[in-house]
Specification:
Layout lengths: L2 E7 L7 H16 L3 E7 L1 H4 L6 H18 L7 E4 L5 H10 L4 H5 L2 H7 L8 H15 L5 E3 L5 H17 L10 E3 L34 H10 L18 H13 L4 H8 L4 H27 L2 H30 L2
Parallel strand pairs: 1-2, 2-3, 4-5
Helix pairs in contact: 3-12, 4-7, 4-13, 7-8, 9-12, 10-11, 10-12
The structure holds adenosine-5'-tetraphosphate.
């Protein structure tokens, strides 16, 4: 049985090393396995749950496609498409919002974090974001969803929605409950300014993250300025629990060199951060600089990016509209 892979990235600009290590690098590995059928979506409907500048949103959509391709996703093998261009997503999100329960959504930590203190002023879309995400996934009979650790709770909600729909309408196995694909040892990349906050696009300080469009000098400078503590690098893995910034940098190094934390610690135990940071800069530059250069090259060829989306939108529409017809019958429309 082929695995059916689906995942999405919001075109909200500043795609960063967290998006890459938490999600996009995984997409590339899955794309390269011929046993998989992969669909990767630029989720602009999700993006507008917080206010976006329309012109900027449009250019971020192309930049996200360029990032997928520059990172190694082959549009001939995987479907790359734009969520808003497949109307089934909005329609099924509505139907599923009549299945999902308020109590389930009230538990979502991402809403609490993003809405902040004044949640009365948050959009309804931000609140029901996980229902749209469930629609995205369930429309394609997805079996596996590669995401960062921050999305695990949304995936669990998607499984609950699938099960409740199947039970309510007595259609056993109509929606398949998808499995998350989340890296085990290091799945959440943290801000370079605060090891307890995740690296994120919307963080005001650009020094908090490595953008996938950063050049060599910017990467070296950001790593040099990344927050650390005053101790040398630890010799035991347990020490990392109380040293979030050290854990983050060691995790990034381990991820990019395909090593375990233990192996990295064995290599650098007792050394000072400036020496470690030089090594870290080398591996980050080696991985990210070619992607950054390729993104810039691809952005010069809008027709190529438009063609990828046009083909992908058609393929996705074909699959999703069949599923919508079945849903209509089941619901009684
Ligand atoms: N810091 C992170 N560590 C690991 N994985 C991460 N992801 C995001 N940040 C990290 C994963 O990247 C994928 C795409 O994320 P997204 O663009 O859809 O939205 P997001 O998670 O909201 O990204 P940001 O950077 O945190 O954006 P803002 O600042 O707008 O909130 C997802 O699989 C996500 O898990």
């Amino acid at each position: 049985m082929k695995k059916k892979i689906f995942s999405g990235v919001q075109p909200t600009g500043n795609l960063h090393l967290g998006n890459y290590l938490g999600a996009i690098k995984n997409f590339v590995d899955l794309n390269n396995d011929t046993q998989n059928e992969c669909i990767f979506c630029v989720v602009d409907l999700h993006a507008i749950t917080v206010s976006q500048n329309p012109k900027q949103l449009k250019s971020n959509i192309y930049e996200t496609v360029a990032t997928f391709v520059a990172s190694g996703i082959d549009p001939q093998k995987s479907t790359i498409f734009n969520q808003s261009q497949v109307s089934a997503h909005s329609e099924v999100a509505w139907i599923l919002s009549c299945v999902a329960r308020m109590g389930w959504l009230n538990r979502m930590t991402q809403f609490k974090e993003k809405a902040g203190k004044d949640k009365e002023k948050a959009s309804i879309g931000l609140y029901s974001y996980p229902v749209l995400m469930a629609a995205d996934i369930l429309l394609y009979d997805t079996t596996h969803v590669p995401v960062g650790e921050d999305q695990k709770q949304h995936l669990e909600l998607c499984r609950d929605v699938a099960q409740k729909f199947n039970n309510d309408f007595e259609v056993k196995d109509f929606f398949k409950a998808p499995e998350p694909l989340i890296k085990k040892e290091f799945s959440r990349i943290m801000s370079f300014k605060d090891g307890l906050k995740k690296m994120s696009k919307s963080e005001v300080s650009d020094l908090s993250r490595i953008n996938l469009t950063d050049d060599k000098d910017q990467i070296i400078n950001k790593i040099k300025k990344a927050k650390t503590d005053t101790l040398p690098l630890p010799s035991k893995i347990e020490e990392l629990e109380k040293r979030p910034e050290a854990k983050n940098l060691i995790g990034i190094y381990s991820s990019l060199t395909n090593n375990t934390f233990q192996k990295t610690i064995d290599e650098f135990a007792g050394k000072n951060f400036s020496e470690f940071k030089n090594n870290l800069s080398d591996v980050v530059v080696n991985e990210i600089n070619p992607i950054s250069l390729k993104i810039k090259e691809l952005l010069e060829d809008k027709d190529f990016l438009k063609k990828i989306l046009k083909d992908g939108n058609e393929k996705a529409n074909e699959i999703a509209s069949k599923k919508v017809k079945e849903i209509h019958k089941i619901v009684g429309f």
